[in-house]
From TrEMBL:
Species this protein is from: Mycolicibacterium murale
Identification of the protein by name: Putative RNA polymerase sigma factor
Entry-linked Gene3D superfamilies: 1.10.1740.10, Winged helix-like DNA-binding domain superfamily/Winged helix DNA-binding domain
A GO biological-process term: DNA-templated transcription initiation
Transcription recorded as keyword: yes
């Protein structure tokens, strides 16, 4: 059996797996090429299921790429933020790629291999480097996060209103949805030097939020793990996620983190 012939016969499938895991045609093609280089010279006579082995190899390469991506994402002033103001709210098809960016690399690979391509957990475990039980748990957690119970409509409405007011720099609109004692916390790498990582009080939070209208225009509200989450994207990839806490008086907490 010739490796080149088998690889080319399965290239379409391998590329589809990589694209669903990585969310990018360019990255998928790169993953498949890397997998070909890793597979070259393998003794196919010792492999019972060559297509399955190749898929496992591609998934492993994708996992490594996802892990590297999380630690090499620039968030400097030169980044080109998307404009998502015309996005269709609640569009599941457009939300799924954003939700995938919020999963851990292991969750993402396990979810795609099992729920999309029907791979058994034993094979998924081999790709991820864990046990079948752990692979099953990763896929289950991912499934709950992206396909679980919907967020409460009141919380979703507050999140949408907060994002809309943030995009427009609308101080009265922000004050309507922020609780008086709201606390905003942010990663240090996401704000200029001198900007506090923690701000308290609706007035101060609203005033500061007005300084980031451009970033807010890259925002979309998605439902992740049963709660509304605001994601900010650049070049179609989630770079920042904002978790909101809801309580008496509206939004009581705003936690802003880089998606690495």
């Amino acid at each position: 059996m010739q490796l080149t012939a088998v690889f080319e016969e399965n290239r379409g499938h391998l590329t589809a797996v990589a694209r669903r895991i990585l969310g990018s045609v360019h990255d998928a093609e790169d993953a498949v090429q890397q997998s070909w280089l890793k597979a070259a010279g393998a003794d196919l006579g010792s492999i019972d299921n060559v297509p399955g082995w190749l898929t496992t190899l591609v998934a492993r390469v994708c996992l490594d790429m996802l892990r590297q991506r999380r630690f090499h994402v620039p968030l400097d002033e030169s980044i080109s933020w998307d404009d998502r103001r015309d996005d269709v709210a609640g569009d599941v098809a457009s939300a799924l790629p954003l939700l995938m960016d919020l999963l851990s690399p292991g969750q993402r690979v396990a979810f795609v291999l099992h729920d999309v391509f029907g791979f058994p957990f034993a094979d998924i475990a081999a790709a991820i480097g864990t046990t079948p039980a752990a692979a099953k748990q990763l896929a289950s957690r991912a499934r709950r996060a992206v396909r679980g119970a919907p967020a409460g409509p009141a919380d979703r409405a507050l999140a949408e209103a907060f994002l809309a007011a943030s995009r427009d720099g609308d101080i009265p609109g922000l004050l309507q949805v922020l609780a008086p004692g709201v606390v905003r916390r942010v990663d240090t790498i996401l704000v200029p030097s001198g900007v506090r990582t923690e701000v308290r009080g609706a007035g101060e939070v609203a005033e500061e939020t007005r300084s980031f209208t451009e970033r807010a225009r890259a925002g979309a509200v998605v439902e992740f793990d049963g709660a509304p989450v605001i994601v900010l994207t650049a070049e179609g990839r989630v770079r920042i996620r904002i978790r909101l806490t809801f309580g008496v008086g509206g939004i009581t907490g705003i936690d802003i983190r880089a998606v690495r």
